[in-house]
From TrEMBL:
Residues 5-236 form the ABC transporter domain. One of its GO terms (molecular function) is ATP hydrolysis activity. It comes from Siphonobacter curvatus. CDD domains: ABC_DR_subfamily_A (cd03230). Gene3D superfamilies: P-loop containing nucleotide triphosphate hydrolases (3.40.50.300). SMART domains: AAA. Keywords: ATP-binding, Nucleotide-binding, Transport. InterPro entries: AAA+_ATPase, ABC_transporter-like_ATP-bd, ABC_transporter-like_CS, ABC_Transporter_VariousFunc, P-loop_NTPase. This is ABC transporter.
Length: 257
């Protein structure tokens, strides 16, 4: 197995100077599906954006496909894909126009882009909308276009940040199967989500971060054994939450009155 992502003592602060990543250490092997989870604000998207070369201000060492993200970001970007949640799509474009724009960034020929775009849009059920402007699209329809745009250049590593957002149950099943088959094809998948049962099922390894630090790292079976707990939701709650959910909910209702 070869290491395709290596993160050493990664720290990052935004403009206010507060550390949001406080020394992350992590390695990902080729062909792994890693579920990267944590509470809101834990630092998941920040980590992914650093791995994509979108945030240069970090300290520590970050290597992707053996190359330093600080100096080789452009080279790395050619080989990785990114499926964000709710990114700003150019809504006045049609999906084919948008995918053409993305494909050209990866130096793909228009003929190849057109073929892939039509095939992929058809496969996610958007055949009847390929020439409609995306400002008429539902949330799930946009998410399907984002999914295709992150994969169209057939990247080696795929970063997904809450990729199932807004997708219907059938589309979720399709995406899970696509991820499983991408793994079989040797791709590496770095997957961030709050949907615990999906993370539990698809991940070879689960990394939990809390307040900018890794607090658990292992297969679901390993985490389950350590936590003496049956589901990832429970393990997550045990490590990052508290047992005041019921009283918080009643206080919330009282505050509404
Ligand atoms: N552009 C920014 N400027 C300032 N602070 C930011 C910025 N982006 C994120 N943060 C802060 O960094 C911290 C981590 O945010 P991040 O988006 O990485 O969390 P996350 O784990 O992805 O959360 P979520 O589950 O809510 O998506 C939060 O405290 C957030 O307020």
């Amino acid at each position: 197995m070869s290491t395709v992502i290596s993160i050493e003592n990664l720290q990052n602060a935004y403009n206010d100077g507060q550390l949001v990543l406080k020394g992350i250490n992590l390695e990902v092997q080729a062909g792994e599906i890693v579920g990267y989870i944590g509470p809101n604000g834990a630092g998941k998207s920040t980590t992914i954006k650093i791995l994509l070369g979108m945030i240069p201000s970090f300290t520590g060492e970050v290597r992707v496909l053996g190359q330093d993200i600080r100096t080789e970001a452009l080279e790395i970007k050619k080989q990785v894909g990114y499926v964000p949640e709710n990114a700003a799509l150019y809504e006045v474009l049609t999906p084919v126009e948008y995918l053409t724009f993305i494909g050209r960034l990866y130096s793909m020929s228009d003929a190849v882009i057109q073929r892939k775009a039509e095939d992929l849009l058809h496969l996610v059920g958007l055949s009847n909308h390929i020439n409609s402007r995306m400002n008429t699209f539902s949330k799930g329809m946009r998410q399907k276009v984002l999914l295709i745009s992150g994969l169209i250049h057939n990247p080696e590593i795929i970063f997904l940040d809450e990729p199932l957002s807004g997708l219907d149950a059938n589309a979720v099943i399709l995406v899970k199967e696509i991820l499983a088959q991408l793994k079989t094809a040797g791709k590496t998948i770095f997957y961030s989500s709050h949907i615990m049962d999906v993370v539990e099922k698809i991940s070879d390894r689960i990394v939990i971060i809390n307040q900018g630090q890794v607090i658990a790292n292992g297969s679901f079976e390993e985490l389950k054994a350590q936590a003496h707990s049956g589901s990832l939701e429970r393990i997550f709650q045990g490590l990052t939450g508290d047992d005041t959910t019921q009283s918080k909910a009643s206080e919330f209702l009282q505050a509404l009155q």
